[in-house]
Amino acid sequence: MRVFITVVIILLGVMGWLTHLNPTPVAFRLTENRQIEVALSALVLGAVAFGGLLVLSALGVRELRRMYANWRVSRQRKAAGKVQELYASAHHAFFAHRTKEAVSFLTRVLEINPHHVPALLCFGTIKRQAGELAEAIRFHRRARSVDDQNLEVALALGCDLDEAGRPDEAAQLYLEVLKSDDANPAVLARLRDVYVKQDRWEDAHALQERIFKSAKSRAELDAARGVLCGIKYEIGRMWLAKGDRDQARRAFRGAIKLDKTFLPAYIGWGEVISDEGRVRDAASLYEKAYGVVGDVILLHRLEDLYIEMGEPEQVLRLYHDAVRNDPDNHVLRFYLGKVYYRLEMLDEARDVLSGIDASDEHFPDLHRLLGNLAQRQGNDPLATEEYKRALGLKKRVIVPYYCPACDYHTFQWSGRCPRCKAWNTFSASPILIKDQPDRVISRAPW
Description:
By secondary structure, the protein is mainly α. It has 19 helices and 5 strands.
């Protein structure tokens, strides 16, 4: 202000001095008919003052705009800080399973910033976990409308649609994402899962091959190989059901080429050969497969085939060889005794089964079979004793096939577990396994 007053005083002094030196006035027209006489010095200084006023006005406007912009930035920073604080609280509450508290914080976040993508994403996830799939889809669609390049949002929305029974929409969403990122393994896997659920095996196969080829670590490669073998197996089953044995054989052999220990493909290939009437060739395949895989399930298949062909001695040969190679394996000895029993060779069955030490293992089928043998041989007291032992273990009897991954039990073998949907997991054992209440059942995404 002092500078401004000083400048004004100086200008007035200069104006007075110039007026003294130039006393003659000049005419200054305001309109065509109106004019005023002013001193020349006053006119010059007035023009300078007017120009200065314009400059000062422009500077003032710029300063006001700068002050307003700073105020807005400060306000936005304050709001962003508040939003970040609220979202952090919501995030912490969500992972601490305090859902109501998390919802309260997220609601306040969206009141301040309706386009906050992380909050919309988290809100949608909470709704999905609560089973409110329509609301989950709504929140995740809002998030995607704000940021359509956000992969996490796209995957969450796809999961909502899939769980809501809208797999075609989920597949379309994943295809849209792949247009901009065609090699993203997460999206490829999600789309593959949708196709697997729909039994679109050839589409799933094309995607899984891309996933397999792009695997980087050993663990990723092994996991991708296992799924690819499973899909090839399902393609083989599909063609076999349609009666196209050549296509089925090609699919099963493709799975074996990827993994020589993939048991379901051997069994599928053997079924193709059996359907062609070449039962002996099927048995030969299973014997070779047993040499590679070493799974007792193949011995069960061979048992049925050789008995069907009227060659039980071949079955006994196989079991004797297996027991000779692994003499401490109670499961193999049990199945050998079971074959003797099936062939009505009761004395041999009794000798083999009686030699099994089951004192440390729960073996209900062993005691049941020994009871049957004793009863058929007329030893009723011994039969009763063995039956009592078997009944004492009746709480949990292991049936011939079970999936150790999810504890599923069945009498029917399958290349894919009906519960956890994993391939090549079935095992065969007559030994009772103790209950495992803390078992975590792992399930495939399909």
